[in-house]
Structure formats: structure tokens, C-alpha cells
Design a protein that fits this description.
The chain has 2 domains: 1-89, Up-down Bundle (Four Helix Bundle (Hemerythrin (Met), subunit A)), CATH 1.20.120; 136-181. Helices cover 76% and strands 0% of the residues. The chain is built from 8 helices and no strands. The model has no long low-confidence stretch (mean pLDDT 80).
């Protein structure tokens, strides 16, 4: 029961804060809402007994990326000081598109999935998820990333991409000689 409550709270946090992120025009408030959305995703990971992923979500996304975004907003000195409406003017169009996509996905899951799942392997023949997940999760995750038959190349490419982004951010933020005076 506690897992369900954690999942519901995490879902409400992630969806509600995500809605604020995409509709709010103030970048700083959007970044704060993004942090709350990441916190909701971490709560969902906790409800799924993935404590390592929840901790990684907290440390990497909330502790590093969100703080980096907030510093970037504050250091560019371009905080939005306008008298515009704080929400997007195309709110109703975005709401209609979101409801339409939700209805299509919901109908696909409710009506089409049971028809295709009836031809698949019976549920009793499948491996129990709890047994597969709870056995050495961190070891299996590490082996999947850097094992011989794992994802070594994509893992290294992602690290090179992050390094290039960090170098680019440093170059962009570096003061120019004419700006120093």
C-alpha cells in the first residue's frame, strides 16, 4: 500500500510540475518546477524498488543539472522582467493536443493491447519481475553498462557528449576581454 501511495504522489508531482514547466513563461520558476518534477520521478523509482536509480535521479538531475540550469539563468542576467501573461497564449491548443494524444494512447492500451497480448507467452511462463529486479540490481546495471556484451560504446559516447557540453558551457560562460573592463 505504501508503494502505491508513493507512486501516486510521485506521479502527481511529476505531472503537475511538468505541466508548470511547459506552461510557465518565467524561466526561473520553470527551472524550480523542473526540480520538483525530477523529485516526483525519483519517488516513482522508489515505489518501484529501484533505490539506486532514485538516488542517481536525486544526485544527477536535481543536484547537478537543475542547479546548473538555475545558475545559467541567474548568470545570464536576462531574467524575464516583462509584463506579459505568465502562461502561454496557446494553452487551449496545447491542452486539446494533449488530451487527444492521451485518448489515443489510452485507447491503444485498453483496447488494442489485450488483443495482441492474447497471442503472446502466458503470464505464468514469464519470469517474476520482483525476483529479477531485486537480485543484485546495481551489479546488473553496471554489467549492462560496461560489460563485454553491454552498452560500452553508447555509454562512452554519452560521456564524450557530456564532456563536450561541459567544455562548451565553460567557453560560453568565459568572460570576453572586452566584458572584463
Amino acid at each position: 500500500m505504501a508503494e502505491q501511495i508513493t507512486f501516486i504522489i510521485g506521479s502527481i508531482l511529476a505531472l503537475g510540475a511538468g505541466f508548470i514547466v511547459v506552461t510557465n513563461r518565467n524561466l526561473f520558476h520553470g527551472a524550480l518546477a523542473l526540480m520538483i518534477s525530477f523529485l516526483g520521478v525519483a519517488a516513482i523509482y522508489l515505489s518501484l524498488d529501484a533505490g539506486f536509480l532514485a538516488a542517481a535521479q536525486l544526485l544527477i538531475y536535481i543536484g547537478a543539472i537543475s542547479i546548473l540550469i538555475i545558475f545559467a539563468i541567474m548568470l545570464t542576467r536576462r531574467m524575464m522582467q516583462t509584463t506579459e501573461d505568465p502562461f502561454n497564449s496557446q494553452f487551449l491548443l496545447a491542452l486539446a493536443a494533449s488530451v487527444t494524444v492521451f485518448a489515443i494512447l489510452f485507447s491503444a492500451i485498453v483496447y488494442v493491447w489485450p488483443l495482441t497480448a492474447s497471442n503472446s507467452v502466458p503470464l505464468a511462463a514469464k519470469t517474476a519481475v520482483a525476483d529479477a529486479v531485486l537480485q543484485d540490481t546495481v551489479v546488473n546495471l553496471g554489467s549492462a553498462f560496461v560489460g563485454a556484451d553491454g552498452y560500452v560504446i553508447p555509454f562512452e559516447l554519452a560521456s564524450i557528449l557530456l564532456l563536450a557540453a561541459m567544455v562548451g558551457a565553460i567557453i560560453v560562460a568565459w568572460p570576453k576581454p572586452e566584458d572584463v573592463a
